[in-house]
Amino acid sequence: MSDVTYPARKPARPFFSSGPCAKPPGYAPEKLATESLGRSHRAKIGKTRLQYAIDLMREVLQLPETHRIGIVPGSDTGAFEMAMWTMLGARGVTTLAWESFGEGWVTDAAKQLKLDPTVIRADYGQVPDLSQVDFTTDVLFTWNGTTSGARVPNAEWIPADREGLTFADATSAVFAYDIDWAKIDVATFSWQKVLGGEGGHGVLILGPRAVERLESYTPAWPLPKVFRLVSKGKLAEGVFKGETINTPSMLAVEDAIFALEWAKGLGGLEGLQARSNANAAALDKIVAERSWLGHLAEDEAIRSKTSVCLTVEGADADFIKQFAGLLEKEGAAYDVAGYRDAPAGLRIWCGATVDTADIEALGPWLDWAYASLKK
Ligand SMILES: Cc1ncc(COP(=O)(O)O)c(C=O)c1O
């Protein structure tokens, strides 16, 4: 390509960040309910709104009654580390890693908790051979690798009669894929991803076997108050009814409620998935039409439909920085550079809060940035 054609039309909402992600269409801060602000989160209004957020999440996720769902501190990291620190150490541990965040959990397990985990890795764009996983151990994995665009295809590789627990960091997976909850003992996410909510709070989902672990096992290490889920040998059930461990941001809660009501209005989980699938398909068409663009995750069965990572022919980190910088300067696309630790490339969020027309409008802008830099 040699022509530098300035595209006629910009994406209406040029927000393609993989976290915090685009706000839901139609979002405006003045549309948020504010009655709970400036009040105690333990007053009736605060507890009611927290419980409402929990009820909406359960409904939109189609989470079965077997699983508890609670709001905890520290975004997805807080929720996942809370699960690691409170439940690991009872048996062997296997950690799966195919990108930066999975590697973070390996570091936690090996260097902080000193658990000597079995580590199964794959390169960026791939997932390891999941049939090799030993389910007599606790197994930690990232459902959707946000920094590599590679995900597990489903939960079929997890046996129903496993001995260990499964811990899924599902922050860029929930609301986008079908999750077989019977195979998941612990899952975590943050509102800032597929819902286009705010960071700050994490969501912790516990299946019955995780609760059993919490009530029957005490880790050898001390636990800070923000990680404590058990009181006098019993699960702190209040956490799953809106009685948060410490003070939440009610503004973040109201923001999440806005997103969840939007999601419900779309038809819930299926509505969100349909939007994400359409976005990923529109981006895939753009890639297919250009010889200089490719998917980092070549195998479609494990390719993300949320954080889609693209290779750019001949690009290094500096080229990508300039590429993303040009698009940002034009107001055509924000935050499309790949993650700093990933191979140099682009990352385009295709989650439900992005409009398909905006993905479609992105194609000519990618051409323009590429041609401008090549010139
Ligand atoms: C897979 C994965 N895990 C963990 C995190 C950290 O999330 P948070 O910043 O919400 O704690 C992210 C953020 O992008 C992520 O993509």
TrEMBL record:
Q: Which UniProt keywords apply?
A: Amino-acid biosynthesis, Aminotransferase, Cytoplasm, Pyridoxal phosphate, Pyridoxine biosynthesis, Serine biosynthesis, Transferase
Domain of life, per lineage: Bacteria
Q: Which reaction does it catalyse?
A: O-phospho-L-serine + 2-oxoglutarate = 3-phosphooxypyruvate + L-glutamate; 4-(phosphooxy)-L-threonine + 2-oxoglutarate = (R)-3-hydroxy-2-oxo-4-phosphooxybutanoate + L-glutamate
Q: What is its EC number?
A: 2.6.1.52
Cofactor dependency: pyridoxal 5'-phosphate
Q: In which pathway does it act?
A: Amino-acid biosynthesis; L-serine biosynthesis; L-serine from 3-phospho-D-glycerate: step 2/3
One GO molecular-function annotation for this sequence?
A: O-phospho-L-serine:2-oxoglutarate aminotransferase activity
Ranges of residues in domain Aminotransferase class V: 136-333
Protein family (similarity comment): Belongs to the class-V pyridoxal-phosphate-dependent aminotransferase family. SerC subfamily.
Q: What is this protein called?
A: phosphoserine transaminase
